[in-house]
Design brief:
about 25% helix; alpha+beta; 6-stranded mixed β-sheet; about 140 residues; 6 strands
Length: about 140
């Protein structure tokens, strides 16, 4: 073991990819030692034009027994046609089929809070002034 006096603390404005990977490796090893091996699986549902281009979609992860929705977007020209609701339901149904009944996501006050509430998500935390002048909401949905 090295002496603590041999360590250097340095600010890094542009971290190297290997440094970030080393941090993640260390953090994952600690988490596994405290809990269990976790597989963070990406999941998505896309809306495509016939030519294959994206008109919308949803992306997230299944991890630690939760489905975490990271992003949802539908092209403005197709909004108002329940496409966002349909892809949310597809994502939820897929996760349920995998044995997942807990869902989480975050959204801003300038985004889709009412939409998620309509789908049964509840706010469990708020972060004001993120971004400045707005509020960030953390939501969850727990199914039986």
């Amino acid at each position: 073991m090295s002496n603590i006096e041999d360590l250097i603390i340095e600010p890094v404005l542009t971290p190297q990819q290997q440094d970030v990977e080393d941090l993640l490796t260390g953090l994952r090893a600690y988490n596994i030692s405290q809990l269990w091996q976790n597989e963070k699986r990406p999941v998505a549902c896309m809306i495509r034009h016939i030519d294959g281009s994206i008109a919308g979609g949803i992306f997230g992860y299944i991890s630690w027994g939760w489905c975490s929705i990271e992003m949802l977007w539908v092209d403005e020209q197709y909004r108002g046609n329940d496409l966002a609701t349909k892809i949310m339901r597809r994502m939820e149904n897929y996760a349920i089929g995998e044995g997942i009944t807990r869902f989480k996501l975050e959204t801003g006050s300038f985004q889709a809070l009412d939409f998620y509430k309509k789908l049964g998500y509840e706010v469990y935390a708020e972060l004001e002034d993120y971004p400045i002048g707005q509020t960030n909401y953390y939501l969850r949905k727990l199914l039986e």
